[in-house]
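Final paragraph of the annual report: two paired records, presented back to back.
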Amino acid sequence: MSLSRVVEEVLELQLCTVTKQGRQKIITFTKNKTELWDKSLPVLRNPIKKKKYINITDYENKENELFVSGFSGLAKYSMLSEDKNNVYAIHSSVYNKLLRNRIIEEVDKSMNEIEIWIYNPKILTCTQIVDPLSLYLSLRNTQDERVESALEELIRGMEW
């Protein structure tokens, strides 16, 4: 999606204003961060493209390309207990490269779950855990009261 299209969509939601200064367009958000999140939430989509299960026990570079996500990530941010299987997020291009080079292999559901994301989770985090807002988007349709409660706690605890 082009930047001008993004600006058009944000303008349609009345989340910003655009002014021109010479050849430059200046985008100013008209809401505070919490209001911006609340108002844009209905149009934000789940970052997960698909899910797979892989064996990563011998993968040496996982700290740079795999980010704790799903229930594993939510457990890190909340009081929810961790699942027995780890869940990681990875960008689709990185996943395809690792699979093509046989660094990882797809296996049955008893191993690590991989969420293949439409964007690189690395760009929004400084830790090994996906950012809280993307995590929320990836789990918001989960029909489990414990998860719903932990997600509410996650958003309430945000330092906007």
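The closing record of the year follows.
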Amino acid sequence: MILCCLTGKKRVSLVYPECTVVFLDIMGFTKKTRMVGTIKMIDFLNRFFSSLDKLTVKYNCDKYETAGDSYVVVFNSLNADKNHAENAVCFAKRALGIIQTHFDTSMMNDLKIRIGIQTGPVVGGRIGIIKPKLQLVGTTMRRGDQLEASCYGNKMRISSETYKLLSHKTQIQFEKEHVNILDGGLTVTYVYPKIRNSAEKTFGYLRSLSVN
């Protein structure tokens, strides 16, 4: 962590040279909410996000925010972690397991999640006066969000920067795939679990175009 600048007496911006950010989103959330009702959906979110909260403790990462059906965590920011990329991928794999096992037989069994993971520098700072919120910005955050948005249901898409930091201990077999990323063009990414068929590949390609 590097102290970047001081504006006034209390405004401090921090640069985290190398973080791994995990973006998670629930597909079909709005449609499902209309079907089952807001109260049941809030109960589902509470149970699912509480399960993810427990994972943040296990993998020593920082819960950045929840916004509606989105959940974002950051590795190697406030809590130093030399294995941040590997732990982020393990966190994501566990999250995929939770949504597919804990909720597969309930009324939420058709919900799927998308996960995007990006590694790189992040700039952060407290924003506002009343209930000031930590705001993280930069290319790493934007690309992580786009990796999630272009991903398939119940899969994770990770950047090449993240992939290069993984060790053999991860023991996860990724599939290499090119997608269009804003301000990055055609970009090499890696998907887990592997893409099943050509129809799924077509869906992923069209979705990557829609987020640009």
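The two ends are 31 Å apart (CA to CA). This concludes the annual technical report; the extension proposal builds directly on these records.
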